[in-house]
């Protein structure tokens, strides 16, 4: 499972363009092996295209996302407090995370705002309308588990009593389960998808790139949850 997670990060999970290119390269390689392999190679590439066409159906992507576990407690504007630290994690659907950061800050005045991610993600948060002088940046972590492991230190350094944690709605089940193991008071602020696919009507059965992206991210989360549970990092 750890190997699958590493491949998903390096190439892209099933449903990604990188994974499609890898599958295409495998097909081309089989075609190059001679006449006996050509039928297998063409069959393989047709199979991959069919799978991707199905993965790009909104009804499929929405179904995969809906099967991710629920999470709680969820932050609400009337629960805001000046003793909070707002922590936003980089990851899938970054524009949605940036917009959620702006929404949270419009509704409250936290003690600190910390962005865990690379400079391009910090710029995205700023582009959503969050002033740079309100942000503290930490780019020393490379995995979600490392980010969550630093929540206590970030809160203590800020003098905060509670963490308002921002991550995408797709990854929030895993993020919330990890945060629950830290002993730090945390409320979850799930961010929306960058570009959600259609959710009703006849277009549910028409492939789209938005749906393919959702399938990719949902499949990654299902694999990551299985890996975290197998590693006993979460229940």
Write up this protein.
- There is one protein chain.
- It is built from 10 helices and 5 strands, in the order ααααβαβαβααβαβα.
- It has 235 residues and is of the alpha/beta class.
- The protein folds into 2 domains: 2-68 and 206-230, no CATH class; 77-191, 3-Layer(aba) Sandwich (Rossmann fold).
- It has a 5-stranded parallel sheet, sandwiched between helices.
- Strand 2 (112-116), helix 6 (119-127) and strand 3 (135-138) form a beta-alpha-beta unit.
- Helix 2 (17-31) packs antiparallel against helix 3 and helix 5 packs across helix 6 (119-127).
- It is elongated, with a radius of gyration of 20 Å.
Please give a quick description of this structure.
The protein is built from 10 helices and 5 strands. The chain is of the alpha/beta class and 235 residues long.
Shape: elongated
Q: What's the arrangement of strands in the largest beta sheet?
A: 3-2-1-4-5
Number of strands: 5
Second-tier CATH architecture of the largest domain: 3-Layer(aba) Sandwich
The total domain count is 2
CATH domain class of the largest domain: Alpha Beta
CATH third-tier fold name of the largest domain: Rossmann fold
Radius of gyration: 20 Å
Number of H- or I-type helical stretches: 10
Average pLDDT number: 91
Order of helices and strands: HHHHEHEHEHHEHEH
Give the low-pLDDT segments. Answer: none
Distance between the termini: 17 Å
Give the CATH H-level superfamily of the largest domain.
Glycogen Phosphorylase B
β-sheet strand percentage: 5-15%
Going by helix content, strand content and strand pairing, the class is alpha/beta
Please estimate the helix content. 40-55%
Largest sheet: 5 strands, parallel
């Amino acid at each position: 499972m750890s190997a699958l997670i590493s491949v998903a990060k390096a190439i892209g999970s099933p449903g990604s363009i990188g994974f499609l290119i890898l599958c295409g390269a495998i097909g081309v390689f089989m075609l190059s092996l001679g006449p006996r392999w050509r039928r297998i190679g063409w069959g393989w590439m047709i199979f991959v295209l069919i799978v991707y066409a199905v993965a790009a159906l909104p009804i499929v992507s929405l179904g995969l996302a809906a099967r991710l576990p629920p999470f709680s407690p969820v932050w609400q504007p009337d629960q805001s407090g000046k003793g909070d630290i707002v922590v936003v994690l980089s990851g899938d659907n970054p524009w949605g995370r940036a917009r959620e950061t702006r929404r949270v800050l419009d509704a409250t005045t936290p003690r600190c705002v910390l962005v865990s991610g690379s400079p391009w993600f910090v710029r995205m948060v700023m582009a959503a309308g969050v002033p740079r002088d309100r942000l503290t940046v930490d780019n020393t972590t490379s995995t979600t588990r490392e980010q969550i492991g630093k929540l206590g230190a970030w809160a203590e350094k800020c003098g905060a009593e509670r963490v308002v944690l921002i991550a995408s709605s797709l990854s929030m089940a895993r993020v919330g389960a990890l945060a629950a193991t830290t002993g730090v008071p945390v409320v979850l602020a799930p961010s929306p998808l960058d570009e959600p696919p259609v959710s009703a009507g006849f277009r549910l059965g028409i492939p789209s790139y938005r749906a393919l992206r959702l399938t990719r991210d949902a499949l990654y989360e299902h694999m990551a949850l299985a890996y975290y549970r197998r590693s006993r990092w979460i229940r």
